Structure formats: C-alpha cells, structure tokens
Amino acid sequence: MLFSEATEVFEKMSRTTKRLELTSLLSELLKRAGDDLEYLVYLVQGKLLPDYRGVELGMAEQLILRALSEVSSLDGEEIEEMYRKTGDLGELAGQVVSSRAQGTLFRQELTVKYVYDSLMKVATSSGQGSIRVKMSIYKDLIMNSDPRDAVYITRIINGKLRLGVSDATILDALTLSFAEPGLRDGVSEAYNFYPDLAYIARLLREGRIDDVLKIGPQPGVPVKVMLAERLSSVHEIMEKMGGRAAFEFKYDGIRVQVHVFGGQVRIFSRGLEETTGQFPDIVRAVKEEVKVESAILDGEAVPVNPETGEIYPFQVVSQRRGRKHDLERVSEEVPIVVFFFDIIYLNGRQLHREAYGERRRLLRETVRESERLRIARTLVSSDEGEVERFFNESIEYGCEGLVAKSLSENSIYRAGARGWLWIKLKRDYEAEMSDSLDLVVVGAFSGHGRRGGTYGALLMAAYDQEKDEFVTVCKLGSGFNDEMLFSLPKMFQQLVTKEKPARVNSIMEPDFWIYPSVVLEVRGAEITLSPVHTCAMGTVARDSGLALRFPRFTGKIRNDKKPEDATSVMEILEMFRSQKKKSVGE
Ligand code: ATP
Predict the structure, then answer these.
(1) Which of 71, 237, 395, 556 fits as disulfide partner to 521, beta carbons 3.0 to 4.6 Å?
(2) Is the pLDDT confidence value at 511 over 70?
(3) Are both 198 and 280 inside the same structural domain?
(4) What number of CA atoms fall less than 13 Å from residue 171's CA on the CB side?
(5) What region holds the ATP-dependent DNA ligase family profile domain (predicted)?
(6) 13-29, pLDDT tens digit by residue?
(7) Is the pLDDT of residue 8 over 90?
(8) Do 174 and 234 belong together in one domain?
(9) Is residue 183 a part of any domain in this protein?
(10) Residue 367 beta carbon below 6 angstroms from any ligand 1 atom
C-alpha cells in the first residue's frame, strides 16, 4: 500500500469530530492494507512495535529542524521562525516540502512498508554516527514525500501523531473489517492477554478467529492487569460477594507483573512497559526463591524502611507515583519488597481460567517467602466484625485498605477488566467520598485576575468504555499551587487543538480543547445530577448527566495511567448509586 493512501485517510481522521466516523474511516483503510496491515496498525498508533518491546521512536526536535533546513534552501533561522509560527513540526515539514515540490523529478514511491522500515532504522540505530544515520534516513523520507506524507512522517518520528484513536477504536475497526460484530468481546479479551494490535490484526485478517479466541497469558508478553471495583463498606462487599470472601491487604505501591521463563526474569508495569532494570534486587530474589520453569506472577512493589522493615506508603517516598526516574531513585535509596497476590501461568500451563482459590494455592506453592518476596496477607471470612478488624490492621500496617476477592467457582483472572470479582475498600480519609477519581483533561478555560495568563479551570472527563469516548464530569479550578497553576499552559501547549477531538463528548465549550492525554487525581464532595455534563447522560434522569461537586486536584498527576485508564462512567454511576443508598439510610 502506498503511504499516501494512508495519509489521505489520516487527514480525514484528524478532521472528524465524530467517533463513529473515525472508526469507519479507519476500518476502510485497514481493509485495503493487504500485506501491509501489520505495519499500518503500528503506524496508526505512532509506534513501531508494542511498548513492551522497548523500541522507542523519537527524533529530537533540533535534529528534525536541522534536517528540514538541509533539504530546503532555508537556513536554520528561517526554519526556526517558520516553526515558531506553525507550532507544529509536522505542518512545518509539509510547508518545506510544498515549497520545493516542483523541483523533485525522480521521486521514489513511498510504501507503508518502506516508511515503516525506514522508521525502524531511525529507532534502532545507536552509537557513534547514529545521529548522521537518523538524519539521512529522515531526509530521504522527506525528499520522497509529498507535503501530506511529510506532515505525518514527521509527526510519527517526533512521537506526536495523535490521530485520536485508542486501542479500543482500533479493535473496533479491526472487528468491523475482519470479523463478526458478535466477536468484539472475544477480540478484546484476546488483546488484553496479548496486547499487540498488529498480531491480533494479522490473525483476524487470516480468518483465524479460533486462534484469537484461544489467546491467553504467555510468558514474555505482559498482560493488561485485572482491576477492582469499589464499595464503601464491608457490609456492602459481603452482600455483593454472597456472604463470604477472601480479603487481602491493599498495598500502596506499584503494580508489577513478574514473568519467569527460559532462565530469565522480566518485570512489566501496569502500563505494559518493561521495568526489569528498575528492580535488580527483585530479579535476584525471584531467581533464588521461585524455582519454576515458567510463571507469570502479579503483585505490588512497595518500598520499605530499611531500618525498621516497615512499609512506606508510596506517597511518602514519591509524590509523583509512577514516574520512572522517581522509581529508580526510590529503589536506589530504599529497598523494595514485592507482595504477590496472583499467578496466571505456571510451568507451561495457563491459569487465567482457574478459580481464585486454586490460583492462590498454586501461588503459595510457587513463591517461597523471603525478605524481598512476600505473599499478600489474606483473611477468608464471613464475619463482618472480623473483616473490620483486619481492615484496621491493614491501615496500621501502612496499606490503603483491603481488596476483597470472590471465592466463587467462576472467579477467573479477567485481564484488563474492572469487575465485581475484586472489590476494593479504601479508608474514608475525609468525610467525603471514599475514593478519588482519576480524570482526563479535555479542555481549559482562560483565567482572569490573579489567574491571568494561565487557565482558570480545566474541563475534566471520565472514560465511557462502552462508547470509547471521554465524557465531561466537572470544571476543575482548585487544589493547584501557584507553581503548578502557572505551568499549565506550557504543560498542555502541545496538546491544545482547535477542533473538539473526535472522542470527546461535551456540551460545554471550553476556550481551548485539549487532546486527551493527561490524567489527574481529583477529590470531590459528591456526585450530583447535572444538565451540562455528559457523563452517563440520560441514564439516571432525562437530559441530565452526572457531575462531581466541589472538585479539587489532589496534587497527583497519574502518569501511570493512560486516558483510557481513567475512572469510568460505570464507576461514577456506582458511586452515585451507593451515595443515594446511604442518604436514604438503606
Ligand atoms: P487506586 O488508585 O485505588 O490504586 P487503581 O485504579 O490504581 O486504584 P484498582 O484496580 O482500582 O487500581 O485497585 C487495585 C490496585 O491496588 C491494583 O492495581 C494494585 O496495584 C493494588 N493492589 C494492592 N494490593 C492488592 C491486592 N492484594 N490485590 C489486588 N490489587 C492490589
């Protein structure tokens, strides 16, 4: 496939403000890709391989500017000046190419595969002379591009493609192109165990639906982790779980997935990135204490006080949880202990469809507890008083509360899903809502008075998983310190867009639309009905959505969460309903 066929569609995709149109444009394009489908699926994501393969594209801005000056008759200053005007490297490259278009007679036709291979060379060339190599490959691409191709090649190489598609959008488009609509859930499940969209795309295109539906955990391939629902009392949890459940300490650290295979130990984050290098002590401990041929273990890495052996809640060590450099610093300064709570693969056997009780038994057999490796503390009980005491013990120990786990026969490991098989119970720190929300910034309102020159408030959204859209929940103006407040415009500079992004569903019109990317932790007083917010619009009452009242930023930017990991509409609906129950004294 010619790359220009793809960019023609990319352009339409960037212009649409409708989610359905976005999916159908993409689906048409994928259908036409033929043997280039896999390359195209990566490029649409602005990637060359899934994140966990560790191939990072990204050519420094300065190099791109230099290359553009070298392929044109413009000098460095002129290029810089043009860049200042457009503010978008892609646009700039497009302008450079149009200004010299007539001059190029013998252009090599750029295919999707050619562009992919060239970008792969850019990403993987390293060491001495690599800057020259990267520059010359980029220049070759630009010289053979038409203006539109140049825009997109440059955006991809600069890590800023932003077509507005999520993994779910691509899965929708793939199902639309190559499978029956009824298979969409099965395709998602497969993807959650094998998060490589191009691999799934290839199987679907080859008509190998059965192989897709059989996909389960594989050592070396990170799975999307299972998540918990939330309730605010032991009583509610007992009711939901049928009167008896396992309760585990909820450790406040960083989720780790530990894969053991072929004599290696590899660790992946919740965001599916490889983090093995950050936990040398854990790797060593696993090699010593987990004597198996292969396994995938799920757990939480927590810093401990080296003097007392007590765990540190993560906030004490790092205000900015999930930041890679912070974690590196932390693991250098304080020892890390991993508390394991699940196992989904053992010695060649997939365990994701086994019940929780069986997985737990195998976990105990597999992990020999040591200073660095522990198994999450658990209580199986049907006695609410006993669970309350266990909850208090967890808080005293430095945990966030408990995670209840269903003991039913179908308590399987549901990758990437937030469901009722696991329910979290957190401490009600303030007499407000028992949990914070993680919301995505989708817009901003100009500030006035003291906030002149920065934003007065941000428009915040939750994620609607059914529709794969971002729906608004509140305007967020408090909880920012001055330093943060005045750094906002810079922080969002590259994310501001003129048009409403296609997957944002909003009644409010902010002064600036912001491409969904940044997730902030927000607390509020309660969830109320609102005619101006689109979260769960029309579900609870006609012409009303749900909104967060008195929202306040907690100071935590959730760098560990993608926009699609934000609090979901379902969760907000649950919060609204449980609030209502309490207020009528049920
Ligand atoms: P939060 O911000 O409350 O941690 P979250 O969205 O990050 O929420 P949830 O699925 O809601 O994640 O809560 C479960 C998280 O708690 C897991 O992702 C995991 O990191 C952590 N955790 C700690 N201990 C346990 C445990 N025993 N079982 C399951 N998860 C645990």
Answers:
(1) 556
(2) yes
(3) no
(4) 24
(5) 329-464
(6) 999 989 999 999 999 99
(7) yes
(8) no
(9) yes
(10) no
